[in-house]
Design brief:
Low-confidence stretches: none
CATH topology: c-terminal domain of poly(a) binding protein
Number of domains: 1
Strand content: under 5%
CATH architecture: Orthogonal Bundle
Largest sheet: none
Radius of gyration: 25 Å
Number of helices: 5
Shape: rod-shaped
Length: about 110
Amino acid sequence: MPRSVNAVASRARRKKVLKATKGYFGRGKNVWTVAKNKYEKGLQYAYRDRKVKKREFRSLWIQRINAGARLHGVSYSQLMGLLKKADIELNRKVLADLAMNHPDAFKAVVEKVK
């Protein structure tokens, strides 16, 4: 009895990967083995970097809050301590947005906790 191979499914799987790797550099876009490896590695990076993105944004927010706070004579750590003591619950994302886009509102927050 001849060997039965599901060529339709195999071809569909390869087409799916090659479509996803369209635009990759060199052989990464059209050679099956290279494209498959690059595709899998790309998925690993995507998974990892969804977590890294959260870290990077928090870091960015802290830098923006610190820059805004120093304009009013307070450091970031002092400001966060004063906010906690004054029982003002604004997260870093909101504070960073205030510091960047609404400096008057940020100044009001800093003056309130001073």
